[in-house]
Amino acid sequence: VSKLEHRDLSVKGRVRLRDVLSPEASLDIDLQTEPHTSADIRPFYNLLPESVQKTFAPLQWNTGIEQLTLQMNVPQKAVHDLKTVWQQGQARFAFLLKNGDLRGKDFSFSFNEIGGETEWKERRLSHHLTGKIMGGDFKMAGGLDMAKQPEQHSRPWLNTSFQVEGLDLAQLKTLARGIDLPIEGRVSGSIKVDGPISRIRDLQGKGDFNGSRVRFHESDQWHTIEKISIGIHKDSANKMRLDIELSDIEIYQALLKKAQGVIDFSSQRIVLNQGRITPAHGVIKVKGNYHIPTRVYRLQVNGKNLRAEDLLKDYLLGPARFEAKLMGNLA
């Protein structure tokens, strides 16, 4: 096959049958597309495994496809059955996408460029991707396994690592629909994820992210955090932990050296442990929890060896200490 055209999609390459008279006969496919768009390949979506189609059905995407190559080997005896093709066939993909847009029910996501290679073998789709998103760079490597779990749990299983460098926080407002996020700064970090892709809450993950010169706008003024460090640990569907440390903070009238704490999330509660705020003088210890079903919160704050001007410089001067216990309902 030298060239094949379907509407605006043009494909060139070859299809070859090897060892025709042998029990090991196979079909080799080597194809490459010319530049086109995602709309040109939508008629071919029904060739994907049913589980993959269901996973990505709620998503809408449009992108320019600069390059798409396919190398595939299928046993001849499996060619007549598409399901068997996906079980026994092998394939390697390479692609380069530019100026894309991905939309779901509650989000939208745009990218400048994403490229990489994927390989399908033994019902596993391995991937190695790189690209430019949100003004920064990203790398992603791992696999999507269609057969890792027993039959009663046969959902596509994701195991991947994701790394970002220099993402622009100002572009976050384009992700979540209906949410205004007046924020600036850059973020870098990495996370490893493992679990069923069809149920986000069941994914497990561990990672670290760092932000620099982060600014957010609230109450008609900008507030600044020079450095942010966040550790993420999620080991079950209902539990997640964030280890947070903020440095060199200017918020409202307060100048703080550091603020840190550990936040545990579960299906019933959000708990703050080891909360510690460090102004120029003294320390403020904080702990508390929030009961999600009743919306009741409890908070304990204890400040010692403080200087009032570190927290309210336009209103108070002199040494200070305080202790407070708060309880209320956020309904």
Low-pLDDT segments = none
Rg from C-alpha positions? 26 Å
Strand and helix order: EEEEHEHEEEEEEEEEEEEEE
Number of strands: 19
The structure class reads: mainly beta
Whole-Å distance between the termini? 66 Å
Q: Helical element count? A: 2
Structural write-up:
With 331 residues, the protein is mainly beta. It is elongated, with a radius of gyration of 26 Å. It is 4% helix and 64% strand. It is built from two helices and 19 strands. The protein has helices spanning 50-56, 82-88; strands at residues 3-6, 9-18, 26-33, 36-37, 60-75, 90-103, 108-121, 124-133, 136-145, 157-168, 183-196, 204-218, 221-236, 239-251, 254-265, 269-279, 283-291, 296-307, 319-329. The protein has a 19-stranded antiparallel beta sheet that branches. The longest helix has 7 residues, at 50-56. Strand 7 (108-121) and strand 8 (124-133) form a beta hairpin. The termini are far apart.
